[in-house]
Amino acid sequence: MTTNGLRGGDGESPAGETPPFGLDALSESVYRLLLLHPEDGPPQIAGRLARSETEILGSLERLADLALVRPPGATGRWRALSPEAGMAVLLARQEAEAARRQAELDHSRGAMASLIAEFSRTRQSSPPSGVEIISSLQDVRERLEQLASEAVAEVLSFAPGGPQPAAVMEASRALDRQSLERGVRMRTVFLDSVRNDQATVQYAQWLNELGGTVRTVPALPLRMIIADGTTAVVPLDPGDSDQGAVLLRSPGVIAALRALFEQVWEHAKPLGEEVQRDGYGLTGQERQLLRLLSEGLTDERAAQRLGVSLRTIRRMMAALMTRLDSRSRFQAGIKVAASGWLTDDPLARPADPPAAASTAVLTASEAVVEPGSGQSR
Q1: How far, in Å, CA of 52 to CA of 30, rounded?
Q2: CA distances from 324 to 131, 202, 281, 337, 341 (A)
Q3: Residue range 163-221, pLDDT digits in tens
Q4: Among 201, 136, 211, 202, which Cα is nearest to 178's?
């Protein structure tokens, strides 16, 4: 253990935040004392910390719930596990919780994509109240500029498609500056692939300097802008923004879109933060690529969803196949399923998965093997 203990930082949690690993200050102090004085019981610990025995017993029960101490057995004493074993248990719990939240996020993304697709199928001359169909791309751009210029509180955006065109970013600077100078809170989520594009990174840094915030994720469900929590603009067809957009004002739909944004935002990483790997050594982008291919997407569609070139997709797959010591994608698919890389819980490692499940992974793009073109990102 370091001098900062199991809770991280300086040992204190900011007001309103959950302590890291769920371990509060008193429980950590009790745990430390049990390590230093294994013969102590609740009365002795209470005396050392100048706390009531009831408080100490509560902390001991909390530590037992976290598998950091063992309740009194035949010896009649509470016993602390070693710091190494305790940290392993805490990290395993946190990773399992992160996997559960990721599964919920993936479900929300799918549900929202279905909702938008439903709107695209209901285009008609007299749309329902709270829905406005915008067919012209020029009208879409003008409406977006209007929303941004009239926003007074916040503008939330999903920006899929990878690195943004330099001309588009340059043209938006004046409007972005005006909004931020009015005190409008701007939060934008890009794809992880923009981290390799200098122009987009410079634009994001410029936004940060003015008070905006930019984060990235491996994949986004759709392009979206929400202004002041009252109006949203999404594409009529999430797979083809050229088809136009739909402007939504229904409070129920806006609430759902806002919840989707907050879920994605919570899991997104600040642009300046290093991309982390999970327990299997996979980046979020690599895991998302495997998931997209296992769902039957071609290399081209996966590249579009991740905002990278076809060449990059094939390079990523070649690297993953090397790590799996596989000669074909079919063989790699079997090994991916067997290793548990695509399970919701990265800690789960199925030893002998059903053949039907394993052979389905990655094979959808097996036939696409010709060298790709385009710039690597």
Answers
A1: 12
A2: 49, 36, 12, 11, 11
A3: 777 777 887 888 888 888 888 999 999 888 888 888 888 888 888 888 888 898 888 88
A4: 211
Distance separating alpha carbons of residues 4 and 22, to the nearest angstrom: 15
Contact call for residues 42 and 72 (beta carbons, < 8 A): no
Q: Is residue 96 very low, low, confident or very high in pLDDT (cuts 50, 70, 90)?
A: confident
The burial of 365, by beta-carbon neighbours within 10 Å (0-12 exposed, 13-18 middle, 19 or more buried), is given as: buried
Residue 52 identity (one-letter amino acid): S
Question: Distance between CA 302 and CA 161 in Å, rounded?
Answer: 11
Helix or strand holding residue 158 (H, E): strand 154-159
Please name the residues in contact with 212: beta carbons below 8 A apart, sequence gap of 6 or more. Answer: 176, 180, 186, 187, 188
Q: Which string of DSSP letters, residue by residue, matches 90-155? A: HHHHHHHHHHHHHHHHHHHHHHHHHHHHHHHTT--SSPPTTEEEE--HHHHHHHHHHHHHH-SSEE
269, β-bridge pairs? 216
Rounded Cα distance between 280 and 346, Å, is 7
Please state, in angstroms and rounded to a whole number, the distance separating the CA atoms of residues 318 and 326: 9
Q: Bridge partners of 189?
A: 158, 215
**Is the CB of residue 187 less than 8 Å from the CB of residue 265?**
yes
